[in-house]
Write a structure and sequence with these properties.
heterodimer, A: mainly alpha, B: mainly alpha, about 70% helix, globular, binds protoporphyrin IX containing FE, binds copper (II) ion
């Protein structure tokens, strides 16, 4: 015990000394002019201006540039997606046959919990932050995020978060949490006969807490950036659709995540310090469900709205037309944002809450289908009679729309109390939300990565491989998640490592599980192709000096981030450096896609201009 | 492909502090939650030290020391409140006795110790550094 303490003390001391050494090195290396006479250290003359980045690793560790941080978020999210995907491949393989043949039920539960948390908190929110960090400042014409350092802090909280969340798997003596991503009490409180008392669960909760802090800091930053850092010619009227969804999403995060943080602290106190927030004789386990879902339902829209914004952004580029009904897409985004705080108890229909309360939650949940449908119809009408070009990003957009239709409609069924009482806690629910988290968020991640690949890398990806990626992912997604919907109808409960209920001679349950596993493998193969394509095209592809790889100028949709890209190309070619002139933008048109247009020559292709 | 056009020159493109704030917070949380005294103290020091550093670097304050001392003071108050909430009244003997038996007192005291160190470093540096640098 004593020697342990000494060891820890030495370790911490060494760490602190190391930090001080590192800081002095970095600060030294920076050639900043000291404050004049030590006085008058106001911000504008502090002499910390710095226009050259350090090289190598130090650059990435110390950057506060929004594009660098966007790249960091993106890399992080791809890594976590790979980890979460590997976890689920083990699970799907286990489910090929009814018995627990490959892994134990305990490990299955641990993987299940980590898969959910990894995908939602370590992949979902960060990948959205990646796109938003890189592009929102470019699109709205801001110098950088409003608080560049806070931006960096928000990112750097994530790697420790991941380590803590996964700690149960690799730290000797700890067991991974088996609580499910919803962490329902009393199981998650770990008292009594429960099996979840270990420190692995505590570490997971701490990690989750960190990612929550990170998301909140990011959200504040985006709100401030979009409100106060816009360029003069970027008004509310022509603010682009992606920034609108990021703004709405950040608002949701601001109200939802601090609540999750507090609930997690309460849970930790229950677990470690004997409070009774979620004890039967205290605040009751149902309190956890209310707090969790008051966060949890907005969270699903936190993950849905920005990808929806990406569809609204990318789809018109390959339809040759502007987004149909721009205003209504914005209104529906805001409506969903507000409504999403009024539906949480649809996750609790079967808990025995007051039927009158239940009915009102059913009504609001059904109402949320309306703005969702508005989006779908606007996307379809955008493509209608347009000049559709089936590039990889466009394919992913169209695939997303089809997935969202299935995901959304199954959601409407679940929102109906009588249907939900039958389908709750079955694979139907799993199928429903995966059509959205994989079918929308996953798909739009790929769409965004392909669409902006030339900006990220200055290269072009390999188109054939990208098409393979799309078709494998699309077919795989239908196999996996439609099979889950059917499994749900057959009564297969979710979150089980084993199953054994043959129905008749063909045993449809086993067969459907095998179809789902097959689909998962198709998705995995597609993902491997994607990663290969990405890395190989980036490192070995020919340099792309086309400033308009998607021919956006023709359709008058050459938006601001591409103009920035083009200026960057010009200056690198001109003087071979990354240095650039301050603003080549001049008095070009202000139109973002669908935003109020200042340029009349727009939409020449489509005589019967449908939008307004 | 680095710089962004129109970037005003007073933006710094690097800062060493965010990484350490993001390291300090989880280390401090783990230390306090599990009652690991050295980890709690080290983590808290890293956390408040980095905050003082980043605030100074952003130009909100001239030197970091007052802020460091202030944050240390806040930790002392917080930790003391936690520890004293577990004790009938304050006396060094009672605290020492409770250290062996009451985990919350251990945590409170470790927060106080971190606070005292921050307070001490901040205060000392403030006076040592009389001459403007
Ligand atoms: C058309 C709008 C939607 C409606 C009416 C709806 C309705 C529902 C309902 C009633 C449930 C509870 C099912 C049960 O546990 O018995 C549910 C579960 C779920 N929904 Fe939706 N949903 C909608 C859209 C979405 C979206 C956009 C997402 C996005 C990412 C989503 C993600 C989820 C998740 C993750 C769960 C499962 C939570 C869990 O128990 O683990 N839903 N949905
Ligand atoms: Cu919901």
């Amino acid at each position: 015990m004593a020697s342990e303490q000494i060891a820890l003390t030495l370790l911490m001391g060494a760490l602190l000394v190391g930090v001080v050494a590192f800081i002095t090195r970095v600060e030294d290396w920076r050639s900043y002019t000291p404050l004049a006479g030590g006085g008058g250290g106001t911000a504008e003359e502090s002499g910390y201006a710095q226009d050259e980045k350090p090289g190598g690793l130090v650059r990435w560790l110390t950057t506060v540039d929004h594009k660098d941080i966007g790249m960091l978020y993106g890399t992080y999210a791809i890594v976590t997606f790979t980890v979460g995907g590997a976890m689920v491949m083990i699970m799907r393989t286990e489910l090929l046959d009814p018995a627990a043949t490959l892994i134990s039920a305990q490990l299955y539960n641990g993987l299940l919990t980590s898969h959910g948390i990894t995908m939602l908190f370590l992949f979902g929110t960060p990948i959205i932050a990646a796109f938003a960090n890189y592009f929102v400042p470019l699109i709205i014409g801001a110098d950088d995020m409003a608080f560049p350092r806070v931006n960096a802090i928000a990112f750097w909280l994530l790697p420790p978060g991941a380590v803590l969340i996964w700690a149960g798997f690799f730290v000797p003596g700890l067991a991974p949490a088996q609580t499910g991503w919803t962490m329902y009490a009393p199981l998650s409180v770990g008292v009594g006969a429960g099996t979840q008392g270990g420190a692995g669960v505590d570490l997971m909760l701490l990690g989750l807490h960190l990612t929550g802090v990170s998301a909140t800091m990011g959200a504040i930053n985006f709100i401030a950036t979009i409100f106060i850092e816009r360029a003069e010619d970027c008004t509310w009227a022509n603010l682009d659709i992606f920034s609108w969804t990021i703004l709405t999403q950040s608002g949701l995060i601001l109200f939802a995540f601090p609540l999750l943080g507090s609930a997690l602290v309460m849970l930790l106190l229950d677990r470690n310090f004997g409070t009774a927030f979620f004890a039967v004789e205290g605040g009751s386990p149902l309190l956890w469900q209310h707090l969790f879902w008051f966060f949890g339902h907005p969270e699903v829209y936190i993950l849905f709205l920005p990808p929806a914004g990406l569809i609204s952004l990318i789809l018109p580029k390959f339809s040759g037309r502007k987004l149909f009904g721009f205003k209504f897409v914005v209104y529906s985004t805001l409506a969903i944002g507000v409504l999403s705080f009024g539906v949480w108890a649809h996750h609790m229909f079967s808990t025995g809450i007051d039927p009158r309360i239940r009915a009102s939650f059913m009504a609001v949940s059904l109402a949320i289908a309306i703005p969702s449908a508005v989006k779908v119809f606007n996307w379809i009408t955008t493509m209608w009679s347009g000049r559709v070009r089936l590039t990889a990003p466009m394919l992913f957009c169209i695939g997303t729309i089809s997935n969202f239709i299935i995901g959304g409609i199954t959601g409407v069924f679940l929102a109906a109390i009588p249907v939900d009482l039958v389908l709750h806690d079955t694979y139907y629910v799993v199928g429903h939300f995966h059509y959205i988290v994989m079918g929308v968020l996953g798909f739009m991640t790929f769409a965004g990565l392909y669409y902006w690949f030339p900006i990220f890398t200055g290269k072009m990806y390999q188109r054939t491989l990208a098409k393979w990626h799309f078709w494998l992912t699309f077919v795989g997604t239908q196999f996996t998640f439609f099979a889950m919907l059917l499994l749900g109808y057959l009564g297969m409960p979710r979150r089980y490592a084993t199953y054994d209920f043959p129905i008749g001679p063909v045993d449809p349950v086993t067969a459907l599980h095998q179809v789902a596993t097959l689909g998962a493998f198709l998705i995995a193969i597609g993902f491997v192709i994607h990663i290969w394509n990405f890395i190989q095209s980036w490192s070995e592809g020919p340099v792309l000096d086309d400033e308009d790889p998607w021919d956006l100028k023709e359709i008058n949709q050459y938006t601001r981030e591409w103009r920035w890209h083009s200026r960057r190309l010009e200056t690198t070619i001109a003087d071979g450096s990354g240095e650039e002139d301050s603003d080549g933008e001049g008095e070009r048109d202000l139109a973002t896609d669908g935003g109020q247009d200042t340029d009349e020559s727009d939409d020449s292709e489509n005589v019967e201009s449908t939008d307004s | 492909m680095d710089e962004q056009p129109g970037l005003s020159e007073q933006y710094r493109r690097v800062s060493a502090w965010p990484l350490f704030i993001a390291l300090g917070l989880p280390i401090a949380e783990i230390g306090v939650l599990f009652g690991l005294v050295p980890i709690a103290i080290g983590g808290l020091l890293l956390f408040v030290g980095s905050i003082a550093g980043i605030v100074q670097e952003s130009g909100y304050v001239e030197r970091p020391w007052n802020l460091l001392a202030g944050l240390g003071g806040a930790l002392v108050v917080l930790g003391a409140a936690l520890a004293l909430s577990q004790l009938p009244g304050f006396s060094p003997g009672a605290v020492l006795a409770a250290l062996g038996s009451n985990g919350l007192v251990v945590r409170g005291v470790s927060i106080v110790v971190a606070g005292v160190i921050a307070l001490g470093v901040g205060g000392a540096a403030r006076f040592v550094e009389q001459e403007p640098i």
